[in-house]
Amino acid sequence: MSENSANGISRFAVELGVAALTGVFGIAVCYGSLDIGAGWTDMGPDAGYFPFYIGLLIVLGSLANIAHAFFKHRGTGEVFLDGARTRVVASFLLPIAAFAGVSAWLGLYVGTALYIAATMLFQGRYKWWISLPAGLGVSIFFFIVFEIGFQVPLLKGPVEAWFGIY
């Protein structure tokens, strides 16, 4: 798991993992750019020319981060994430994941109302009679701003059919 697995995940392991993920992303950008053409033609650069070199920069940055991790954090035993920090991170990430799932299923307005209300209720320790109107108010505000003001329809899920919107 890590160099110092008794105390949690080491900073060295996290640095290597993030650098590897960004490196894979850079390789994917380069590969995709080669598919659409990353060379130079008589007319100028192909469509993938600029993205290819951006992908290359991402890969080089990832390699620099790997080298930095080896020189600065290897063998230090510095803990990046322990049990207490994991609970704090989970208390933030799990509601965001639930928001994404509910929004994909029921639409952004329902997801936003539930997320704001639940976050205020459970993390902010507000009363339900404050949390629920706040969540609904934010969703109504977003509806007015995006749907009416900017005329940009957002994902509404089955709510759209229930209310006959559009």
From TrEMBL:
InterPro entries: DUF1468
Keywords tagged on the record: Membrane, Transmembrane, Transmembrane helix
Residues in DUF1468 domain copies: 18-154
Superkingdom of the source species: Bacteria
The UniProt record lists the keyword Transmembrane helix: yes
Organism of derivation: Sinorhizobium medicae
Identification of the protein by name: DUF1468 domain-containing protein
TM region positions: 12-34, 49-71, 92-116, 128-146
Cited Pfam families: TctB
